[in-house]
């Protein structure tokens, strides 16, 4: 699945498709950790409440 990096109000944003959010149970206002894996890879992890 390919997504485009966008700039909104001085921040960069990558939209997560609704189907992916539904599959993983992501909801608005969930918090995430972005971890670098290598120079070209990141891991996105949802923080547990």
Could you explain how this protein is built, in words?
The protein is mainly beta and 49 residues long. The chain is built from one helix and four strands. The chain has one domain. It is 14% helix and 39% strand. The strands form two sheets. A two-stranded antiparallel sheet has the order 1-2. The protein has a two-stranded antiparallel sheet with strand order 3-4. The longest helix is centred in the middle third of the chain and has 7 residues. It is globular, with a radius of gyration of 12 Å.
Task: Give a brief outline of the structure.
The protein is mainly beta and 49 residues long. The chain contains 1 helix and 4 strands.
In DSSP terms (H or I, runs of 4 or more residues), the helix count works out at: 1
Average pLDDT level: 94
Largest sheet: 2 strands, antiparallel
Low-confidence stretches: none
Strand order of the largest sheet: 1-2
Domains, number: 1
Mind telling me the C-alpha Rg? 12 Å
Notable features of this structure?
49 residues; mainly beta; two-stranded antiparallel sheet; 1 helix; globular
């Amino acid at each position: 699945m390919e997504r485009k990096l966008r700039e909104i109000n001085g921040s960069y944003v990558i939209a997560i498709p609704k189907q992916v959010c539904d599959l993983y149970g992501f909801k608005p206002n969930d918090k995430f950790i972005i971890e670098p894996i290598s120079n070209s890879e990141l891991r996105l992890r949802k923080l547990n409440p």
